[in-house]
Design a protein that fits this description.
Elements (H helix, E strand, L loop, with lengths): L8 E5 L3 H12 L3 E6 L15 H4 L1 E4 L2 E6 L2 H9 L3 E5 L6 H4 L3 E4 L16 E5 L4 E2 L5 E3 L10 E2 L2 E2 L18 E3 L4 E4 L14 E2 L4 E5 L2 E4 L4 E6 L5 E2 L4 E6 L13 H21 L5
Parallel strand pairs: 1-2, 1-6, 2-5, 4-5, 6-7, 7-9
Antiparallel strand pairs: 3-4, 8-11, 9-10, 12-19, 13-15, 13-18, 14-17, 15-16, 17-19
Helix pairs in contact: 1-5
Protein name: Selenium-dependent molybdenum cofactor biosynthesis protein YqeB
């Protein structure tokens, strides 16, 4: 087995909460992982998303620490310390220098933002927007249900329906979009406690403000996601997520079942494709 510091890079595009499930699973399996992000990530599940390193310098999810770095040389040094390096590089221009053995597109944009099979020996797309056998080698299914995490070697994932997966019977009701444009402002509840991720909220309660416009909870439940304070949101942007299951309050800072399943699919695809192509990743 190769030492981690000399293993070829596996580059994951995106470090939101679903991409974090991929990154953490790859890291724990021994892959040499690096991730790229945009300059202003808008993850709402901030406590379970490594992209928070863009804002804070470092982030940690389930014991895996990520550090924002300025260049490829610093990325290599950070990787040697056992941390996952993150480059602010929306177009993944670093690929030309890194020469990763594999590129995993986990941006979850619902369409392809520039990943193709010329970028690396192994290319994997997460969710809709990719076609295995054409622009990528494999696609991993992201739709909740029987096929979640399945590796697709020919064809595409299930098309985006625009409707969030059902949880306890709720779909669109559990996701909140900005009612106006402006800066995100946090609020306090009637007891004076800050309303943030992990709070138990009730339908109709003000959970934030955009400028002076109140943002109301749509259902009773746990505030599982809330975009960071001060973020300049546009009208209609997804800014919050409520889970109707109160017991989920204990899990707001951990990887979701969905993200973990997708991460497992990526590991499967990498091992299968590296074996077929004779590429030593570990």
């Amino acid at each position: 087995m190769l030492k981690r510091e000399v293993r070829p890079w596996v580059l994951v595009r995106g470090a939101g909460d679903l991409a974090t499930g991929v990154i953490v699973r790859l890291y724990r399996c021994g892959f040499r992982v690096i991730t790229t992000e945009c300059a202003d990530p808008s993850a709402i599940r901030r406590k379970a998303a490594l992209c928070e390193a863009v804002w804070r310098g470092t982030s940690k999810v389930e014991g895996v620490r990520c550090r924002c770095v300025s260049d490829v040389a610093q990325a290599a040094a950070v990787s040697r310390t056992g941390e996952v390096p993150l480059l602010v590089d929306e177009r993944a221009a670093c690929i030309g220098v890194l020469r990763p053995a594999a590129v995993v597109d986990a941006i979850l944009a619902k369409h392809n933002l520039g990943t193709d099979r010329s970028l690396a020996q192994i290319t994997i797309g997460i969710g809709p927007g990719f076609t295995a056998g054409e622009d990528v080698d494999a696609v991993v299914e992201t739709m909740r249900g029987h096929h979640l995490g399945r590796v697709i070697r020919q064809g595409a994932a299930i098309p985006d329906t625009g409707v969030p997966g059902a949880i306890a019977g709720y779909t669109v009701e559990r996701v909140i979009h900005a009612p106006a444009a402006g800066r995100m402002r946090f609020v306090k509840d009637e007891t004076g406690a800050a309303v943030d991720i992990g709070a138990i909220v009730r339908a109709g309660q003000t959970i934030a403000r955009i400028g002076e416009t109140p943002v109301s909870a749509t259902i009773n439940g746990v505030l599982r996601g809330l975009i960071r304070e001060g973020y300049p949101v546009s009208a209609g942007l997804k800014i919050a997520d409520i889970d109707p299951r109160p017991e989920q309050a204990a899990y707001c800072d951990t990887i979701s079942d969905k993200a973990r399943a997708i991460g497992g699919g990526v590991v499967e695809a990498l091992l299968e494709l590296s074996g077929e192509k004779g590429i030593e990743l570990l």
